[in-house]
Protein 1
Amino acid sequence: MAEIQEKGGKGGKGKPKKQSTKIDMTPMVDLGFLLLTFFILTTTFAKPQTMEINMPVKAKNQEEQSELKASNALTLLLGANDKIYWYAGLPDEPTAPGVQVTDYSAGGLRKILLDRKSNPDLVVLIKPMDTDKETGRYKNMVDVLDEMNITDTRKYAIVDVDPRDEKLVEDAKAK
Amino acid sequence: MPKVKPKRARPSLDMTPMVDLAFLLVTFFMLISKFAPEEVVVVDTPSSISDIKLQESDILTITVDKNGRIFYGVEGQHTKRELIDKMAEKYNVSFTEAEKAKFSNMPSFGVPIASLKSLLNMSDDQMKKVNQPGIPADSLNNELGDWLMQTRYSNPKVRIAIKGDNDADVPTIKKVIKTLQDRKVNRFNLITDMENKPTI
């Protein structure tokens, strides 16, 4: 293997020369490693990770939709610049202390969700803002859904932004 | 006194096991590798702790890039072949056999159906360079919805995955989700990168 053959020094004698049965395999091995490198680099092993979401079936009329109790509601408004405006209760009168701003860090959204973990009926309403003034990013949506998984929050829904919510955000920003 | 000549060992070692292993690995990688399909757009997906893997086959990918363009891709040559026939019929566009064959080999595309024919007539190099405007998904002209429905007719097992860029804007994503919901698709997947689960 990988040896350079040596010619026997003594020639011309009657004895037939014993030819070595070794072949130089260096080029083959080179090629082998080249292919190995190529395949290692081009293979894609990991299939993409996914998150499954189930959206609710659209209710045909208003009566089919269930009312949400103010004490169980938590609304997250996903705004621009990775900010979350959030409040507990209903948009007509958010329970004190009203609309607050937080972020996607562990001490922000996750803490809010964990603080409310004691309430098994908690429903988190995720509202990605898509108005002209405030537009969230897709990353924010996924991050929030991810936080739901991390904190094991079971009930959540992606909802459209209400005009009342927009006003609340405007007020909170003006403050 | 004759010098004690140390016996010169030839500096060669037996590399057979190493080479055996190398070829074993080559064979392994050759058999296992499935080349990543060439992407029309580069999409940087957000990360999540979810560790569900996407199913092996029959995946319909709706890609949303950072400029809000929508691209459509479905796996399976057979499905795509049927799909283009159905779409051609619905939109009254005719495609030649060569165009259909090319379509069934394309991983994804992002043009309205009216310009699909000219896209299919481009060479591969041109196709890479051309700026695809994305598939219309507005409520008035919702081609995305039609592609979706026709794909589901062609292959009912198809699983829908949304692959969005970090910076894709919410209105576009909402438009896509609304399109899905309007067609009674309430279960779909979001493609994300892996992330370690934080301890709480």
Protein 2
Amino acid sequence: MLPDKEFILKLARSAPTELSPEDQERSDLLKKVSLLRPLVMVNCSTSGVVAGAKQTWEAIENYVSDRSIDIDLAETGSIGLSSEEPVVSVQLPGRTRLFFSKVTADRVPNMLDDLFHHVVPDQKLIGQLRQSGHEPWSDLPYLDEIPFFALQNRIVMGDCGIIDPFSMGEYIVGGGYKAFLQTIRSLTISEVCDLVVASGLRGRSGGGFATGLKWKAAFNTPSDQKYLICNAEESDPGAFMDRNLMEGNPFLLLEGISIAAYAIGSNRAYIYIRSEYKDAIRKIKNAILQLRESGLLGDNIMDSGYNLQISLRKGPGAFVCGEETALIASLEGKRGMPSSKPPYPSTSGYLGRPTVVNNVETLSNLPAIIRNGPQWFNGIGPEGCPGTKIFSISGRVRISGLVEVPMGTTFNTIVNEIAGGVETGRELKALHVGGPAGCMVPAEMMDVPVSFESLKSNELVMGSGGILVMDDKTCVVNTVKYFMDYVDKQSCGKCIPCREGTRRMAEILRSIIRKSTDEEGHTTLELFKGVMQLESLAEVMKDTSLCGLGQNAPNPVLSSLKYFRHEYEEHIFDRKCNSNTCTELRSWFIDVDMCTGCSICAKRCPTEAIIGTARHPYFIVQQKCIGCGICYEVCKFTAVYYK
Amino acid sequence: MGIRLEVNGRAIEAVKGETVLTALNRNGMHVPTICNLKDLSPSGACRMCVVEVKGLETLVPACSFPIEEPMTILTHSPRVLRARKTNVELLLSNHPDDCLYCERSGSCELQSLSEDLNIRERRIPGKKSPHKMDKSSPAIVRDPAKCILCGRCVRICEEIMSTSCLDFAHRGNELCISTTLSKPLNFSNCTSCGQCLISCPTGALIEHVQFPELDAHIHEPEKIVVAQFTPAVAVSVAEQLGYKPGTNLSGIITAVLRRYGFDHVLETSFGAEMMMMEQVEIYKKRAAEGNGLLLMTSSCPSWVQFVEQSYPELIPILSTLKSPQQILGALIKEWYPKQPGNENKEIVSVVITSCTAAKTEARRVEMSKSGIPVIDLVLTTRELARLIKLSGLDLDRLEPEQPDAPFYSPGSAGKLCGVAGGEIEATVRTLYSNLTGRELPPAKLHRFRIHKSFREMVIEVGDREVIMGTVSGLSNAVALLKEIKNGKRKVDLLEVMACPDGCVNGGGQPLPVDEKVLRNRSKAVYDLDNGSKLHTAHQSPSIQKIYNEVLGEPGGEKSQELLFTTFKKREVLL
Amino acid sequence: MDEILKRFPQIKRNALIPLLQAVQDEFGYISEEAIARIGSHLSLPTSKVYGLATFYNQFSFSPRGVYHISLCNGSACHLGGSGDLFSELTKLLEIGDGETTRDGLFSLEVQSCIGACGQPPVMAINDTYFSGVGVKEVRDIIKQYREDAT
Ligand SMILES: Cc1cc2nc3c(=O)[nH]c(=O)nc-3n(C[C@H](O)[C@H](O)[C@H](O)COP(=O)(O)O)c2cc1C
Ligand code: SF4
Ligand code: SF4
Ligand code: SF4
Ligand code: SF4
Ligand code: SF4
Ligand code: SF4
Ligand code: SF4
Ligand code: SF4
Ligand code: FES
Ligand code: FES
Ligand code: FES
């Protein structure tokens, strides 16, 4: 599996023209420019496996061994089409690679039968990869021509789903590690910082802090030891950009980490990764091993005199540990509770030393910036906010997945043009952007371009890049309550406004989407007061919470109150959920014609809201019903219905 | 160095790097704080101290915000006040409305904060977290429902007491203060020192109150109820009764207790003086054996338990004496039954002390006599204050009274035990006399009274030098023991008191305590010694009388039986 | 246990989490004995070990079920109806989040985003994933596992 060290080093060192013919040949093989036999690649990262990629893999193995066909079968990451998994790509020698969606195990034999006879099964074809020097398939679209990819600019994610994440050789023949070697050979530390400042790169975790400036602060703080930490906690529910990057192209991240560590004068880097990310962990471990073996990590890297150790640490599971001071506490073996800033980690972080915490996506941008120069990067996207951003799109949308677009692209392009918008017959209601700390973007604001500045001027936030698409069948109040419940559970509990505030907010929201019972007795007036309280609580939470979690937790509430106040009012005054999501607000009735009077529902109703005499139609007393729906479930005669 | 701040329109000077709170306090301005405690690591958790800083988006916590450059600050703007008030209201939304029934009512910081912020209704409704009270410890009762999670107890127990019995557990709205595996306190390594209790702002930590149990004994003709109270109580109960800190009420307390119905009233200092007599013998014996071991005092029950749990290897150098209250307790149960007319009566022995650990100590089997405890009830200074109030007596009209003979010693040696260092100071006086035959002028040791957690002094006793030392606060003790172990220091006679500054700062003392109050209490103890005519235990006629009539001589058989005990390794989850 | 402790010769506090993770992986939960041993190995008060372990989702103090069910409640799965699955599971198994059935067969854990938001709602039993499942399917799946066990 490991290509030999000498060869890799030669590749990393030399320009492509300097290679001897044999080396060129080997490099072409690694690069998959030339193939000895057909190549089949299966996305075996998490999104693929959940959809059955393992079974697909086995089916392919069985298929070729049954027929004694000699192929190369390899793993790859996801190209971003989450809802189309398992994605399988097939490259026949000399031809361009073809991508297929939803290749479940049962489809394998037919598909491979066709392909090995040079027939393209037209079903579920995504497109062909543009590969120079390969004979294209006629009349088939290139990947970059189909709408999902056409409008993207995949500078970070470009190789995901295409290359083998376990192969260092493939990463390096594709130009990998050139940037790092160039950095340690020909740039001084402060030059790297300046270069990154000039590129205008800003942190991709949501705050948009200028990466170069953060580095400089750490670089300028004298210390015997400095640390670089890659923040791979990514615990926003519904966000999976970082996971995908690590699963699809782990070497890219490691190269980025190496550059950043060098730039702050550190020879110790940690990757703090969610322990649930088993696949990413496996791949990064493997990558670190290979890099160490070949001398691209460790002591005196490539005779440059620069030493670097990168270690992986598994986060034991707490959303708040994405916050940098909490993350550092967790690394130190403490409860992951944030601490007050200042002092910032860049002056006093891990073990009290200057520490830079950067996000996976931020770091993965670095190799391209070094390779192509700051001007190139600065030229992408709007002024002051250059580069691309990856968004994960999910919810009520045709294509769930990951898209990488230049900053400044509108929500409309991202959601409607790239991800195909909502299902036919449905209407887009809103986007929820940025997870629990994020905000609701109403359908009317789809033309807002996505960049730190323009979002801020529209009182919106980017967050880490999760976009949840909500159609007319999605309830705003319910979604906001979902996020509030989430932060309520995830708050570390250290400070009063967040610990107690999120709990009260969640309670108020819960009461709005639930019918009152006699004990709780939430009258309309009380609910209304609750909503008023939401706003004042929100302001104090923003003002006084210790860390970003508490400060941003009210965002979903405030933005939804701003744009969807009417929906709150419907819930409160009409006690109705128009999108029919809030089950507990439903009004249930018994159809007198269908009811046989079996009395089962009456026995099971928790509030004794159903009355009647056996063998005559029963009746639901609306005042007593809490809308739990049990009667509906237990009725064998489908006599219960809701309005 | 100096940085100019503008606070509420006035200019003040601040030192670079200090916190906003320090600068404000130095300039006579105050903001409310909950989680911040002097000498402990900052936590910045409660957000009560927030102030508005011009140019910053959010409010900042004064207690942990370092001053690096000139700033314009508002400490009481409407925005700030609303934030503070809302945060207190949020706390109250998860707090029982129990003030009427709460031990801490009147000295509760949450109560006074809500009053200061003019909170007059429960504006934020909501469910309260379910909680169970922990009454398992004989000394400390934990009521998590009243806990506001400020973390003071956690930091005190860890940083000052080196015990780390408590920590935060879980997170978010399930966050709570917990022992390891949420065990009851008496199964933990808590030493009952009560330091967490006196640092707690609310009623979440209180002593195990025994005051009501008195009713079952007092005025019972079949029972002889004997009280003893400690010197630290004498100099501090006054605070809770509206007198100036540092007022010594010992004679008045005796008078009140008699009127309340106690049959006999004694002072624990008598037990302390007995202890000193015996300590000298132990020292002489160990010095003669000459194995170089130092002698550490065993009068503080919290310290003793700490050694048994965490440093069992040190048990051999611990003194084998009981604590003063236990010594006196043993004498009480020995003496009173033998007095004429008492043959068929039950003796109930009550200790009134500043020490919460004494409540736990009273339950130790090693301290009992044939299975019956020599101390039946332990009340704290705070409980005494309540008893005094309940007695309905006008203290200003009472004449001070003397404790009962024969356990009354007119001297001040035993009373010195109220402060850290006092026990060793008085013991050395007796040791000196014992070894040289001459009396040491009291002023010789006054240098030993400087205000520091560790003090040492070399005193020439005849042809030898004795290094006497005292350390208070268990963390300080641990650090010192390390130095001794590493050979960096040598101490022959070491007094260890678990509470910083000793028993004047015990867990049962009136609240609130601050440095000034503590100084006044200590001063009152020293004043007593300075004004006394009798400074040593061995010169006390009543001590001599007890040896003559009951014990024989120091170190003798009867002493062994009544005054000595054993210590052994204790297995707990550390 | 001794084996695991040997793997962490360095007695620094920052070894605490990896150590607990190793114990959790090995035994499936963290026992009282483990807490005591880890505490003395790292010279840390056990209250700190316990306090730390309760902070994080990964650690549990009671053994997990033979079948450990992870139910995704990330935002996409929430929209996709994971709430209904959760109430169904609690009804079927009579346990809540983080609990184990009396017979030790099932344990339930709600997670935030399993990483396949394109196929909500997602559920996993040990290492087997189920995507796009409804209430009815869940009933069948649990029934199947119960049968397999007996
Ligand atoms: C509650 C909270 C959660 C966070 N979670 C993450 C996360 O999962 N991943 C991440 O990279 N940054 C997260 N951050 C931001 C980090 O604190 C930190 O700013 C970031 O890692 C810096 O990286 P960047 O400068 O490259 O953006 C979070 C912040 C807060 C307040
Ligand atoms: S804001 Fe929330 S998460 Fe942050 S420190 Fe406060 S309680 Fe913890
Ligand atoms: S929904 Fe049906 S079962 Fe539930 S409370 Fe209403 S009537 Fe009763
Ligand atoms: S269960 Fe259905 S059929 Fe039976 S009484 Fe209720 S509504 Fe009627
Ligand atoms: S702790 Fe304070 S606020 Fe709470 S009930 Fe007791 S006195 Fe009242
Ligand atoms: S303070 Fe108010 S509530 Fe309390 S006893 Fe007095 S009148 Fe009643
Ligand atoms: S009484 Fe002392 S040892 Fe016990 S918890 Fe409180 S501070 Fe810790
Ligand atoms: S018990 Fe008291 S000191 Fe400890 S956290 Fe709770 S309120 Fe604070
Ligand atoms: S120092 Fe005094 S009050 Fe404190 S625990 Fe020891 S004996 Fe008790
Ligand atoms: S709960 Fe409102 S639209 Fe549903
Ligand atoms: S006193 Fe400053 S945050 Fe608590
Ligand atoms: S939200 Fe369930 S897999 Fe992401």
